Amino acid sequence: MANITRRNPFLEPFEDIDRFFSDTFPALKNLRERGHSFMPAVDMYEDKDNVIVEAQLAGINPKNVDASIENDVLTIKGKAEKKNEIDDKDYYKKEIVRGGFYRNIPMPTSVDGDHAKAEYEEGVLKIIVPKVEEKRSSKIDIEDKSKK
User: Fold this and answer.
1) Alpha-carbon span 36 to 79, nearest angstrom
2) DSSP assignment, residue 134?
3) Residue 42: which of 30, 32, 51 has the closest Cα?
4) How far apart are CA 67 and CA 73, in angstroms?
């Protein structure tokens, strides 16, 4: 089973540092240039037959979300739309992120993307992707046809 990477709220203040480096080194800011403003948090786990990915997309219309699998990499992208937000409000806090999102998630094993299923319930997108049996090496018998 693959290693688990946990989301760490302690690291969120370092997003300003990330923005600094993205602005200083243009090659690092490709996500923002494409209009993607955040990456949704995900959980990935497996059962006997499937790899399951759950993405937290609270408040996002599932019609604004696309999911695809290519070369054992799951891509989730979409848009979190603003709802009549007024820019001149005097916010005490503004933490809700709006705009485009994009996430590439490498699968821990070979999967069958053609038979993947997705469902959205209570702000969580759940994608179930069947595993495929990994190709195993085979021994090849060598026939000796040299003259004896």
Assistant:
1) 8
2) P
3) 51
4) 10
- Residues recorded for the chain: 148
| Domains of the chain and any CATH numbers | 36-84+95-130 (2.60.40.790)
Please give the helix or strand (H or E) that residue 22 lies within, else none.
helix 15-24
Query: Residue 118 half-sphere exposure, CB side, CA atoms within 13 Å?
Result: 20
In whole angstroms, give the CA distance from residue 127 to residue 53. 5
**Tens-place pLDDT, residues 44-61:** 999 999 999 999 998 889
Say how far residue 66 (Cα) sits from the centre of its chain: 11
Poorest-confidence range of 6-15, 28-37, 44-53, 77-86?
Answer: 28-37
Distances (CA, A) of 78 to 12, 34, 63, 102: 22, 12, 9, 7
Distance between CA atoms of 132 and 112, rounded to whole angstroms? 6
